[in-house]
Amino acid sequence: MRMFRLLFFSFFLSQAALHAQTTSAPQLDADFHTDRRQAVRESLPSNSVSVFFSAPIRNRSNDVNYQYHQDPNLYYLTGFREAHAALLLFDAPIWIDGSRVQEVLFVHDRNAYDEQWEGTIMGAENAQKILGIEKVMSSKDFQTTLSSLQNLATILHLPFRNDTRDHPRKEFDLYSLQSAFTGFLHTQMKKDNTVVVDQTSLEQILAALREVKTEKELAILQQAVAMSVVGQVEVMRAIHPGMSERELQGIHEFVFKKYGAKHVGYPSIVGAGAHGCVLHYTANTADKVGNTLVLMDVGAEYEGYTADVTRTIPANGTYTKEQAAIYDLVLAAQKKGIEASVVGASFWDPGQAARKVIEQGLLELGIIQTAREARIYFPHGSSHYIGLDVHDPGTYGPLKENVVITVEPGIYIPPESDCDPKWWGIAVRIEDDILITPGGPVNLSAAAPRSIVEIEKMIKSDSPLDQFLLPPLDSVID
Q1: Which of 20, 238, 332, 354 is the most buried (most CB within 10 A)?
Q2: Is 103:133 a contact under the CB 8 Å cutoff?
Q3: Which domains does the chain have, with CATH numbers?
Q4: Which pLDDT does position 135 carry in this prediction?
């Protein structure tokens, strides 16, 4: 069975480049977003409006911005990916600009100057046709529209993001939209001190909706997970001690882009040796990984949905006795955590199951003297939701059907730890994406080898990158 799996996977990898650009991939459509807006409206209190804003444009340095990434909640409700936008949802129809509607999206107007520098802008007319929203207006009309709203009992909104970057024409940028909304809140509360301004309820509504994935969402998420699996396998095939952390990161991310992913789900973590002991290590600066374990926590984002897969592998192809002992302990803990990931279980059950295994294992290895000390070397929880965010919102209640969580126990033993030095510098995390189903947990990322035998065998296999040799830079510099 194992040989068949490896042969199948090898064939799958060899065909990947041929099919990556031709396979019909799942996407969300206007009906999905319409349904999500309706679900929010049905949860709103009487005589209320909920307000959502696009993500800010984030500055990298001087006049250079990071690539824009939409606020997940606004995307979830509209499918709109551009900046400087706001969405109003009402619990009941209301008159706005001559129309009786329950939803209004405000967007940036089309103009030749901005489109020359930043690309095509959808504009109000196209947004209404493409997105299927009842009414779409110019962002310039946001303030006057708010001013015309009267007698609302409740105004719901999410917390503001305070790292906004102004647009040169401030009449429509996100900062101006948020400023107009703040003024509207003050005016309404001054006129009627019974108006309720509520942030918490809207967060809870969105968390409950986004926690349980629809069939369309699961199809997209599975694409992102599959890309991440192939990235892990290709790195296993290519790795050797002379590679840098950045090269390994680059292989992962090249695979993602080859399959059509526009982003990574989060900054890639590639930590060799003691770097793996830093839980959110994203510098990836080591020029050579050497004869170390390399912890790789990397996930593709596809159509907005992100995977989250971690493997820890030996750069030289073979686990030492001490590395293998820690690795097998983490793997045993993860298996128990996955077994506990069932419908109706507490959200925290997988982590508790994994923690018991690690506590007992560290005691037996003599690394700790009491079970409570395990938290020194396993300092984080083992699960979180994934979806439009790598740490997706949710209720943290009993696990439900069609919820996707991670199970990711780890052990991290930095140099100078209070244990035998033979353990120093060993860091292991194993993370998979688990779909909760009535028939039990389904490991969506299981095709990335997890056992020591499978990983060592994969590392010994040939890689197409073995023949990818770049010329010395001296040869191209005059």
Answers
A1: 354
A2: yes
A3: 30-208 (3.40.350.10), 213-473 (3.90.230.10)
A4: 98
| Alpha carbon separation from 438 to 194, 341, 442 (Å, rounded) | 46, 11, 10
Burial class (CB in 10 A: 0-12, 13-18, 19+), 172: buried
Residue 450 tokens read as: 């997890």
Report in angstroms the alpha-carbon separations of 41 from 33, 36, 365.
Answer: 12, 9, 55
Which among 49, 463, 393, 10 has a CA at the least distance from the CA of 210?
393
pLDDT at position 4 over 60: no
Task: Give the integer Cα–Cα distance in Å for 147 and 128.
Answer: 23
Predicted confidence (pLDDT) per residue in 415-470, tens digit: 999 999 999 999 999 999 999 999 999 999 999 999 999 999 999 999 999 999 99
Contacts of 165 (CB under 8 A, 6+ apart): 56, 57, 58, 59, 65
Joined together, the tokens standing for residue 58 give 């984030």
Q: Which residues have a Cβ under 8 Å from the Cβ of 208 and sit 6 or more positions away?
A: 394, 395
Q: What is the DSSP string of 21-56?
A: TTS------HHHHHHHHHHHHHHSPSSEEEEEEPPP
SS3 219: helix
Predicted confidence (pLDDT) per residue in 259-304, tens digit: 999 999 999 999 999 999 999 999 999 999 999 999 999 999 999 9
